[in-house]
Write a structure and sequence with these properties.
three-stranded antiparallel beta sheet; 83 residues; Porphobilinogen deaminase C-terminal domain-containing protein; 3 helices; elongated; Double Stranded RNA Binding Domain; Porphobilinogen_deaminase_C_sf
Length: 83
């Protein structure tokens, strides 16, 4: 769910075949870690972002990671995918 929130929060929904990955994990200290990645279809390029927050701030964490992905160029990779 956090992964989906990240994409929607940044207004960066993927195309039908967009290689987008997200992984959320509750760490031993009770904080949530979210890692997001967007790839080109051939896997030659990847944009990564990661963040940590209190578990109760999961939506805000999703927004933070999504915005970082967009700043790092994920939109261009997503726009390059055709259905």
């Amino acid at each position: 769910m956090r992964e989906r929130r990240a994409g929607h929060a940044a207004r960066a929904p993927g195309a039908c075949n967009s290689p987008i990955a997200g992984h959320a994990r509750l760490e031993g200290d009770g904080r949530l870690r979210l890692r997001g990645m967007v790839f080109t279809q051939d896997g030659a390029r990847v944009v990564r972002a990661e963040g940590r927050a209190e578990a109760g701030e999961a939506v805000a964490l999703g927004v933070l990671v999504a915005e970082e992905l967009v700043r790092e160029g994920a939109r261009g990779l997503i726009d390059g995918v055709s259905c």
